[in-house]
Amino acid sequence: MTDLHIHSTYSDGKLTIPEIVDLYGKRKFKIIAITDHLCEEESFLGKASNFLDKTLTKETFNSYLKEIELEAKRAMEMYGMLVIPGVEFTKNSLFFKRSAHVLALGIKEYVPADRTIIELLDEIKKQGAVSIAAHPVSTRVVEHQTFHLWDNRENLRDKFDAWEVASGAHFFDEVFESGLPMIASSDFHHPKQINSWKTMIDCELNFESMAKAIREQRIEFINYSEFNSKSVRLQQGFVFEGVHI
Prior knowledge:
single chain
């Protein structure tokens, strides 16, 4: 089982990266991605996030990647779990229709979030990383919404490797029915959010195999709860009861 959208104390998460590794590793997850916010440097809301210490910066980026690298080695040795470095490029506006969040999994070098969406997607591809449109429709909770990617999905259809079909406990029917490539993750910020929609990926335990499986959509979705052994799975349009393994 995978969770590819997780925040640590490097941005606005409640747990450190080692605490996240232990939380997921003890629950036998096979792949996770640490994807802390990387906010714009020039926008008002980006500057506010920087002031509040809720974002990665150019100065903290290398230490962030180094800590993920060290924890990835420990995760594989202790739990047999793959840990992927990532960021959530965070372009927030006072207007929801102008806001957009882009996940980059497997990123290797710092890129400022102030670049255009197309420029960010081109850079993600250049680095061999996986691009995901984060919570592109209403998340069904009272929070800042990010509609720009969904409103422009026809122009961006071929640019993203996947679009989030669920965020936390909420499943997005409009994304599921769109024909776009999909992924489901928790958007984890605190421990209770581990109970959420997740993705099961048919791949080997390495980044290249995972990326290929996402692009080929060799996946299924599971509504995970550590308090309930049964859950609803979605695969190729069919719904059925599943049991956690």
